[in-house]
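pasting for the record
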Amino acid sequence: MERNLKLTLAYDGHDFAGWQVQPGRTTIQGVLVSAIEHLTGEKTLPQGSGRTDAGVHALAQVASVRIRSPIPLSNLRKALNDTLPESIRVLDVEEAAPDFHARKSARAKTYRYRIYREETCPPFLARYVYHHPYPLEEERMIQSADEVLGEHDFTSFAAVDPERNRENLAPSNIRSIYTSQWQREGPELVYTVRGNGFLHHMVRNLVGTFLMVGKGSLSKHNLKRILEERNRSAAAATAPASGLFLVSVEY
């Protein structure tokens, strides 16, 4: 009998070429495929809630996968963690409804982006933050965060997604942002964003543009104009992957 399982995963994305299977490259999805096949003998393709980029981390990524193996859930979680590299951990395995799909069933996601602001970044933090010790008007960034709240066409903040083009998916770039907030947490400036979905590189492009606000190159009001232009070249450069975490997925 086929089972539909919901897996909750945490991973350090530093050494992976992102979530999605890619020929000749080590990815989260690819390693998970191999681990499941090793344990069950079944060829599967776990579906993630989203395709995190190379170097992006996850505190609670969700994947759905269909298997026939009768291995009890707790045993499967333990066996997967014994098989997977230490940089990927299965936090939970649950039986899901037959129609559950990690991406299609998702209702909201939360991401965090960490910027380390002090002059010297501790070596054990370097792969989990973007080290930016240079001058920033942080208060301007904090005050501008709410400019992207609500439903907008985020084309200006979306990188071209080759996979989406191959699948001939509808080109709607309209998304709703429910939370957009910058705050100081000790030596770090942290951006938290929650929305009903995110486009390719969207969070990192938002962060890159907010950084331009902090540097004084853009004003809070420029953000509205950038949104309205619906042109990727209107926004700033993409922020590095190392500071980005997928925090949670809601269903």
